[in-house]
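Now for today's protein.

===
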Amino acid sequence: MTRSAKPMINPWLIAPLVALAAFMEVLDISIANVSLQHIAGDLSAGQDESTWVLTSYLVTNAIVLPVSGWLSSVMGRTRFFVACIIGFSVSSLACGLAPTLGLLIVFRAIQGLTGGGLQPSSQAILADTFPPRQRGMAFALYGMAVVFAPAIGPTLGGWITDNFTWRWVFLLNVPVGIVLTFLVVSLLDDPPALVKARAEKLRQGLKVDYLGFLLLAAGLGLLQVVLDKGEQDDWFSSPFIFWLSIISVLSLVAFVIWELGQEDPIVDLHLLRDRNFGVANLLMFLLGFILLGSTVLLPELVQRLFGYTATLAGLVLTPGGLSIILVMPLVGKMVSVTDPRKLIALGLFICAMALLRMTAFDLGTDYGTFVWARIYQALGLSLLFIPINTAAFLGVPPDKSSAASSLINVSRNLGGSFGISLVITALSRYAQAHQTTLVAHASPLNPAFRQSLGQLTRDFQLHGGGAAEASAKATGTIYQMIGQQAQMQAFIDDFRMLAMIFLAVIPFVFIMKKGVPHGPGPAAH
């Protein structure tokens, strides 16, 4: 059995270590979101300019993720993992000390560049450290980290910003990074299969696929800018977004064609030919799509229509994240004795039902109802992450685990970016449509409108003011109510759309091969 640890090291010491590294990186995607206004004010920048603090990170992160498998094979996975932790920690320190917005954006780009390898490296280390029948529990720990981080990020970021300063959102990574670096160097080592493969690659002479990397960087980097800025710039009505989209699509198409013809590709797309791995990537894309899409929607709903603070909005998500932590170890045990396809299908169904439950929200819904709806959804999400990853790595050779992990993490991250862009765009479109419909009914010809207007006018008159002033206030109040109802209906439509996507995907699960993870006993360490 191949190993990812030095002799005599218990693999269960390694699992929380690499999970913490992944948690630190995923957390930084969402933790800074709630601090943008404070960053803009402190650095004398506009709100639109400050959003590049997020975009720069996502762009460089998207570029590095797919090539991290190749970088691991060239540098050695442990060496690459340590370099990522050190680079991420140093750039986090630079972000926390940045004196201007321009420098903060540059340091955030470096942070995304160095942090991009942490997720796939962590997952590949777990895949090689544990035999197939134990991977469920190992991936449970990893899953708790990468699924809980986006849920806790806004709450933690809001609390840090409110009680200290936005700079500690980044400085927090430094002590964690120092401890991780020491432990990784002490405990981890590359498995023999990877050491041999790397030696052979270097013996034959290192060949760098420069064209493939440039096409990938242009394709994914520009795609991330389009997804992050598209709604803000009204999508294809903006020449900037239109041309970035064209260049991105052409670059990605050229990249796929080029890579499929290379003997030593920078991204091993041939892995997608495996039925299990290909479908698992599709499902992971959708998991990211729904997870981050709904994670954005719920806080947006309670802040926009219910007046919740950023911290309280984050606390709507936190109980769901805690329920994931409680349930995932159980799923880790179940996946070793149950066909992963059944667990995935059940998880998709539960998520769909939870989202349909959210369509019953109205302007009188209380905090507890929001929290329980998210907890129900989190239970479904708990049944997805581990079985999808377990099914994906069945049959993947040890020397391909880093490349496979890179691809499946790209799928999840891209799914999240698409999910956020789609739900925000759909929310705006749905709200406009509902407002148009409701305004059409706000006519003097409508008896209900006349009755409501008359009642409100009388109420305002009773509180003082002339008839004209009371009538104007009544009309304004009605149109404010129309706007709130239109937005509420738009959120409901978004929840319903996500539920339908979940239900539509269930049949595709059974394209994967039937089977229960099995393999030799625990690896000797």
About this structure: The chain has 20 helices and no strands. The chain has two domains: 11-207+264-432+489-509, 213-263.
